[in-house]
Structures are given as C-alpha cells and as structure tokens.
Specification:
There is one protein chain. The protein has 355 residues and is of the alpha/beta class. The chain has a domain of 159 residues: D-Maltodextrin-Binding Protein, domain 2. The strands form three sheets. It has a five-stranded mixed β-sheet with strand order 2-1-3-10-4, sandwiched between helices. Strands 8-5-9-11 form a four-stranded mixed β-sheet. A two-stranded parallel sheet has the order 6-7. Helix 2 links the parallel strand 1 and strand 2. The longest helix is centred in the first third of the chain and has 20 residues.
Length: 355
C-alpha cells in the first residue's frame, strides 16, 4: 500500500514538473507597415492685388467748365477712381485756378502739381521740338485725319519724346478740340476770295505768317475789341472755333463762316515726371488706361459739338461754306513750313502720309 501511494505521488510530481516546464509562446504582434503620412496639399496662393495707394492727383486747365476739355477731365477723374477702387482721386481745376498755361506747365515740371493740359507750342518751346508740327496751319486734312495722327504711331512717338527730351514731364495723351475757322463779312469759298482781306488772327508769329501766305493782311486787334472792329469795318473777318464764334455773338456782325480748318492743335495731357517716378507701375497704368478710355470718346464728342454749333449759327442767319480748293490753302503754307518746321520735317512728312 505504501508502495502504491509512493508511486502515485512520484507520478504527480513528474506531471507537475512537465507542466511547469512548458512556456507559453506569445502570439506574434500585429505587423505594422511603415507608410509616410500623405502631405496636406498647399493652399493656393491668393494673387496679390494691384499695388495702389491712396493719392490725390491735381489736374488743371485754362478752359472753363462746360467746355469739352473740362468735361473730358471730369470723366477722367471718374475713370481713375473706378479703376483704382477709389484709392486714387483726381481733383480738377478749371479756368486757370492753378495759374495760366505756362505757370501750370512749370508747376508740373517742378513737381508742385501732378497733371495739366498744354498746347504743342509750349512743349516745342520747352525742348520737345517735334510738337511744332502739330500746330502748323493746314497740317491736318480733316478732324478724322487729326484723330488718326494723334491716336496712332506718330502721336505715341511724340508723347514718348516728351520724357526723353529731359523737360521733366511725361506725355499721357491728347484731346482734340476741333478746328478754328475764318468768319468774314463777305463769303469765302476759295483762296482767291480771302486775298486782300484784313483779318484778325491769334497774335503768334505762325498765325501772322499764315494770313500773309493766304494773301490777306493780318491786323492786330485785342480780342475784347474785335466785335466793334468787325462792326465798324476795321477788319473784314477773324478766326475762332465755332463755339467761340457763337458764344461771342460774332454772328451778329459776320454772316459767313468758311470751314477751312486752318488750325487744329491738339491739347496735350502731361504729368509731372518727378511725381510719376514716385508712383507704382500699377498707379501709372491706372492713369494711362483711364485717359485712353476718355480719348476714345474724343472724335464723337467733337463731331457732335461741331454739328450742334453749325445748327446754332445757321439758326442765326449764318451761311457755312466748305472750301472748293482746300489743297491750294495747304500748298500756300510752303514758306511757313520752311520757316517754322525745319526742325520737325520728318514729323510733317509722316503726318502728310497718314491716309
């Protein structure tokens, strides 16, 4: 019995030792695949807005409110505000508020004001000699021809020469005011009709020589005395734009207008180079684009104005004549061109070649 118990105990101990010797095999850890986390797409860059700061541009003219020049300036002011998101403001000064034409030009050259209107003769005298051509008598065949000249390659190149001539100005654009025409006591339809007449003209050397070249006699009369001079026969006629003839009531003493279009100098818009160079490219572009949009209305505005004043003058009993021999009037200017256009002969030739 003891032997049997001893054998059982021995068996139990052997079994227990075997059981303790078995080590549990740990289950394999789940495999982890090494993968880079996907990159978050970069936010698209927001395009930078135009580099435009708040600034005021003072823009002056000797013309009065109500003229096509003043109307164009106010339209330009609206365009600049619109294109700059209201950051750029144009203050328009009409009627010589910032000085006469010469003073305003000097203000711009010195950086005292930003913009002004000026005549080609002032720019030519300042050093941009090519502008002389734009003021020569009978240089344009018509208003349509003039617009093609100033809006085309010739105008673009002349504007560029303003800056390259070193006169501290930048050329922005042009604005045509239409033509000046003779009005006379007796009808004029051809060059022979005007010969021998005593005519009041603008007191410039070019205009005086023009009248002489036509065979007439230039007679100096102050503008304020012109009405009475016409009335009393001191002069036989004078010249002015159609709106000037009407507003001064010259139709009361002269019943004839001949559309000879002898003078059509385009007003030139210039900017102070000193201030221009302080502006960003975006600000400069606003000025250029705004004036381009205004200039695109020029032909229609002038044509409509001339048609209106023709009707008004005719309603006052004025007869308006077209020339039957316009080529002879321009051919008569050969001596005038030789005297005053020697330094811009290339520009004169280029203008004459524009169809």
């Amino acid at each position: 019995m003891k032997k049997t118990i001893a054998m059982l105990m021995a068996f139990v101990m052997i079994f227990a030792l075997c059981a303790c010797g078995q080590t549990a095999v740990p289950s394999a850890a789940p495999s982890v695949t090494s993968e880079a986390e996907p990159e978050t797409p970069a936010e698209p860059e927001t395009p930078a807005g135009p580099d435009i700061s708040e600034r005021t541009i003072r823009f002056s003219t000797t013309s009065a409110d109500g003229t096509t020049i003043a109307d164009a300036m106010y339209l330009f002011a609206d365009k600049v505000s619109e294109m700059s998101g209201g950051k750029m403001k144009v203050e328009v000064f009409t009627n010589s508020q910032l000085g006469d034409a010469q003073q305003a030009l000097q203000n711009a050259q010195l950086g005292v004001q930003e913009m002004t209107m000026t005549q080609p003769t002032y720019l030519a005298a300042s050093g941009a000699v090519g502008f002389t051509a734009l003021s020569l008598p009978y240089i344009y065949k018509s208003l349509d021809h003039q617009i093609k000249v100033i809006d085309g390659e010739i105008g673009t190149e002349l504007l560029r020469t303003i800056q390259t001539s070193g006169i501290q100005l930048v050329g922005i654009g042009f604005w045509s005011e239409g033509s000046r025409n003779f009005f006379t006591k007796e009808p004029v339809t051809c060059i022979d009709d005007i010969k021998g007449m005593k005519l009041r003209c603008q007191q410039t050397e070019v205009d005086t020589e023009m009248v002489k070249a036509l065979g007439a006699s230039p007679t100096p009369i102050a503008f304020g005395e012109l009405y009475s001079a016409l009335q009393t026969g001191v002069v036989d006629g004078a010249e002015n734009p159609l709106d000037g003839i009407y507003s001064s009531k010259f139709y009361e003493v002269c019943k004839n207008v001949v559309m000879d279009e002898h003078s059509m100098p385009p007003t030139t818009i210039v900017f102070s180079e000193i201030i221009w160079n302080q502006m960003t490219a975006d600000e400069q572009q606003v000025v250029l684009d705004a004036w381009k949009e205004v200039a695109d209305t020029n032909y229609d505005v002038v044509n409509a104005g001339m048609a209106e004043y023709k009707e008004l003058l005719e309603a006052e009993g004025v007869t308006i004549y077209e020339l039957s021999d316009k080529d002879k009037w321009s051919e008569a200017m050969a001596g005038v061109y030789a005297k005053f256009g020697a330094d811009c002969a290339d520009v004169i030739e280029a203008i004459s070649s524009v169809e």
